[in-house]
Amino acid sequence: MNTDNDATPDVSDTSKKPIYMPTAEAYDQWAATYDTDGNFLQALDTIMMDKIMPYFLNVLPSGPKLVELGCGTGRNTIRLQSVPGATVWGLDNSRGMLEIAMCRCRSMRESLPDTYKAESQEFALRDISSFQETEPTWDAMKDADAIISTLVLEHISLEEFFMVCSKLVRPGGHILCTNMHSDMGAISQAGFVDPATGTNIRPLSYAHTVKEFVTCASEWNFTLVWGPVERKVEENDLVKLGIRGRKWVGINAWFGVILEMLGGANGAAVVEGH
């Protein structure tokens, strides 16, 4: 589950008023074009993930258990395939997105030598909003060393997100989280144009502020070890972001953090480089 926030037409055009639908249903329809429709926020997230991942990998133990909440089409799940000895879980509430992620990661795993790839990769069709702690699949993900969630928070409440994280990650474990910045969310939201009908489709959307995120994280016993980093779109980004990024130049579009669950033996250690 990731966001595009500029794939939609101008809603001031009354002939193209958006249709709002449940998130899973919207992403099922979006899946076929999600990776090819010029999603500039996804491209920006990829740029920033390239910078965050070295710090994130540095805090992981050997052979970690990793859970990705909202893996979408596997854009970042494929990064986890090259973590030696890792047990990787990828969850999403969209069957269409999940099927693409499964195929993508299967191909990636086949290309890696055994000494440079994760021990296992599991996928599950699950919705954070329907979390059941004792359900076998959720139960199998407990005591995770780290959780990854990129461009997902726009679609769920902070309370739901941190409640689930608190049940899954072990004390001393970490969360790498990125999201659309609220400065952008105040203007736009995730959505896409159905190429078959021209319909502007939008899922549920929240514009969480960085302050709200950090406050809620603290209430659930998580502390910052990297960030928060807030990222504006810059002119020199447009070569990589594409034409749709132009109207966002000078506006905060993204933020990212690494958190630690308090209660570990060593406490929180600040990660260098933020």
Can you give a write-up of this model?
With 274 residues, this protein is α/β, with parallel strands linked by helices. Helices cover 30% and strands 23% of the residues. It contains 9 helices and 10 strands. It has helices at residues 23-30, 40-58, 77-80, 95-111, 136-140, 158-168, 182-185, 210-219, 238-241; strands at residues 19-20, 65-69, 87-92, 120-125, 144-150, 169-180, 192-193, 200-202, 222-232, 252-261. The strands form 2 sheets. A 7-stranded mixed β-sheet has the order 4-3-2-5-6-10-9, with helices on both faces. Strand 7 and strand 8 form a beta hairpin. Residues 1-15 and 265-274 have low confidence and may be disordered.
- Global Rg: 18 Å
Spans where pLDDT lies below 50 across 5 or more residues: 1-15, 265-274
Q: What is the count of DSSP helices, taking H or I runs of 4+ residues?
A: 9
State the order of secondary-structure elements, H for helix, E for strand: EHHEHEHEHEHEHEEHEHE
What share of the residues lie within helices?
25-40%
> What is the strand arrangement across the widest sheet?
4-3-2-5-6-10-9
Strand content range: 15-25%
Whole-number average pLDDT? 88
The major pleated sheet works out as:
7 strands, mixed
Determine the N-to-C terminus distance: 26 Å
Count of distinct strands: 10
Structural class estimated from helices and strands: alpha/beta
Inertia-based shape: globular
Keywords for this entry:
9 helices; 3-stranded mixed β-sheet; globular; alpha/beta; disordered N terminus; disordered C terminus; 274 residues; 23% strand
